[in-house]
Specification:
Layout lengths: L7 H13 L2 H8 L3 H15 L4 E3 L4 E3 L1 H29 L3 E7 L1 H18 L3 E7 L6 H4 L3 E5 L8 E8 L1 E5 L1 H7 L14 E3 L7 E5 L5 E5 L4 E3 L2 H9 L5 E4 H9 L4 E2 L9 E7 L7 H14 L5 E2 L1
Parallel strand pairs: 3-4, 3-5, 8-11
Antiparallel strand pairs: 1-2, 5-14, 6-14, 6-15, 7-12, 7-13, 9-10
Length: 305
């Protein structure tokens, strides 16, 4: 007989027979037929190669081997139940670790503060916060939640749309003073730009006029950067003009360190999304964190629904 017949179900059947002393009683208790109970016991004994019970017409008793095996089965079944209970408690717990990956500039300027607020409300939850503009594999990297800008194609992840990130053209006031006046998209053709090198289509600007007409303008410059915070510093230093997410430069626009370029023209927004590893989504701590971040990120200036 194959060892596969030594299963938890057959162990449970044997334990109940040993405790009740009657196969018919166990059959009634479990809702199985007595023939099924008898077969399970026979297959278990054949798999183990020993007799576990002595049976007469009046009573069922444990053999010496059955007594030892009964004690071992109790320990095994207790450990299985304990492990299952711990997993149920873990799934419901508001303690433990949540691993979050986020687009770097957004994470530094905004999401980090949201995580501080989340932990203030949930002091038992640890957060591992990774900042990268690379598209990480959530399962391979052990990430619970990823916040990403731009189109996403990973259909295996649970996706939650957070809104659209508005984009604007900006420059420092002194740069505008040196390079103005700029009134039409055509005026931007020969101006020095600051480009984000890893953004698809960053060699051109697509601008929508107030009446809906689209203008495509070549975009170039001597400085290419691969990080939004570096582009922000370049704008502030007067190194050129360029597109930026509103949340990246809102404080600079408010205090006058940067100005809008062609404010009547619109740049296409970028989708902002949250990815959640499906096997982690039902954990209470992950669900709480995802819901909190989803609600609060929508309030960041420049994030629209």
């Amino acid at each position: 007989m194959e060892q596969s017949h030594v299963s938890l179900d057959r162990m449970r059947t044997f334990v109940r027979i040993a405790e009740r002393g009657n196969l018919a009683a166990v059959a009634r208790e479990t809702g199985a037929g007595q023939s099924t109970i008898t077969r399970h016991l026979r297959e278990l004994e054949e798999a183990l190669g020993v007799s576990l019970l002595t049976r007469t017409t009046r009573r069922t008793a444990l053999t010496e081997e059955g007594t030892r095996y009964y004690a071992q089965c109790l320990n095994i079944l207790c450990l299985v139940e304990q492990a299952s209970q711990e997993m149920r408690q873990t799934r419901q717990a508001t303690a433990g670790t949540v691993r979050i990956s986020c687009t770097a500039a957004l994470g530094v300027l905004h999401v980090s503060r949201l995580i501080f607020a989340f932990q203030d409300q949930n002091p038992g939850i640890r957060v591992e916060f990774s900042l990268t503009d690379e598209r990480v594999d959530l399962v391979r990297e052990g990430v619970d939640i990823a916040i990403r800008l731009g189109p996403l194609t990973d259909s295996s992840m649970k996706l939650r749309a957070l809104g659209e990130s508005q984009r604007v053209l900006v420059a420092a006031p002194d740069w505008l003073h040196r390079n103005g006046p700029l009134k039409r998209p055509e005026d931007l053709r020969d101006r020095e730009g600051v480009r984000l090198s890893r953004v698809h289509g960053s060699d051109r600007l697509v601008l929508q006029a107030p009446k809906g007409k689209h203008h495509v303008v070549p975009f170039h410059g001597r400085l290419n950067v691969d990080h939004g915070l570096a582009a922000r510093e370049a704008f502030l230093a007067g190194r050129g003009f360029g597109p930026a997410h509103r949340w990246l430069v809102e404080d600079c626009l408010q205090d006058g360190r940067l100005d809008l370029v062609l404010p009547n023209y619109r740049l296409p927004p970028a989708p902002l999304s949250m990815l959640i590893a499906p096997e982690r989504a039902s954990l209470t701590r992950v669900r709480l964190c995802a819901n909190f971040l989803g609600s609060e990120i929508a309030k960041i200036p420049g994030i629209g629904r």
